[in-house]
Amino acid sequence: SPAFLYLLDVTTLFRFIPKEIAIKFISIIGDFFAAAAIYKLVGLRYHDNHILKWAGFFVVLLAPTVFVESAMWGQNDIIFTSFLLWSLFFIASDKPLLAIFTFSIAFCFKLQAIFFAPIFVILFFHKKFPWYYAFVLPVTYVISIVPAWLAGGPFNKLISMYFTQFDYYRSLSMRAPNIYLFIPSEPNYEQK
pTM higher than 0.85 for the full model? Predict the structure, then answer.
């Protein structure tokens, strides 16, 4: 997504930092951002228990999967996940605009954030959020692609980027260790 490419552009401006470290640095900052969200979430339940809040912080920060994906592999999944955690915090804190905004930022980084959307659907139906907050997501997404568009990217391709991903990867598994690995990749799945 363009949002992640913006972060890559910023970190690679510093020529004295090796590019591999600069790329991993983005994810490491995301680790701390996610751990801070957990600290705040735990604090909602246990206001005065600083030990539990810090335990939550360090459990996330030092979790093997978090460490391996960010610091070793430089994967960026923690970035959108951290925004989802902040969105959950804002939902629990009864701050609906910030909740939908942080969810929208997560969506700008990765399509998989959409799996968090049913929470908002439920909140909209229960009238916990005003109906017009539903426009925060598309507005945030369009704003996120404007710099890429101004840099010369085709607007129609940028706006439909997530829809075109369905046609790009046709295999059910790309050698990932899951049940879909046993389904032959040829012929590819077909929509009927």
Answer: no
